[in-house]
Design brief:
Layout lengths: L7 H7 L9 E9 L3 E2 L2 E2 L6 E9 L4 E9 L10 E12 L4 E11 L12 E10 L3 E8 L9 E11 L5 E11 L16 E13 L2 E10 L13 E10 L1
Antiparallel strand pairs: 1-4, 1-14, 2-3, 4-5, 5-6, 6-7, 7-8, 8-9, 9-10, 10-11, 11-12, 12-13, 13-14
Amino acid sequence: MFKKAVSTAIIASSATFALQAQADVSATVTLVSDYVYNGVSSTDGDPTLQGSVDWYNDAGFYAGVWASGLDKDSYSSAEVEIDYYAGYAGSINDDFGYDLGYAFYTYPGADDAGAEFDYGELYGSVTYKENTTAKVLYSDNYFGDAGNSVIVSLSHTISLPEDFSLTLEAAHTKLLEDGGDYYFGSKVNDDSYTNWGASVAKSVAGFDLSLGYTDTNIEDNYWGDTTDARAVFSISRTFE
């Protein structure tokens, strides 16, 4: 699930797409201690490899594919998630940039006959001074045939000494149809939740390192400990 985030790397770099002299391709490989999307672990606390291949051109258009390992017990035997996305990024003025696109999330090998896992999502974001981003994602049939959904998020990055950066973020996920009343818990109207987190990042010798903390307000045994507070470490390398 862009986690899935369109991929933070894509969102961060998309603001510069219009400045590229020509079409380009890059690939990124990442090792994460836990695959967490919007505060929820998709690997049940285990590490996994992730990777993406991205194309972008001087007009601001981009497209790519992103993949990650999964906990197969949580995803009905699916051991990998593969996401496809395409969009357009540009600038409104010297202070504001924007990103509009569509992502499609797939779970090959999942036994999802009872409730389709694959789904699509429209997304849009506005970034102020390259460090504050507000984003909205909308799906007409969220993961598991849950119907219409909307996710809103806000993040802010602060530059620290020694080329470190601190990112603060929060998001709210809401299902818009009655069928989602029990989706995030066993109680009626458990159709939404909020997550938040902070992470410190630094680039060292061509590798991007990040250490973060994330948590949610989901309180239900159905989710096990996948929604509990946790620390997440990642190391990635991009090849261009």
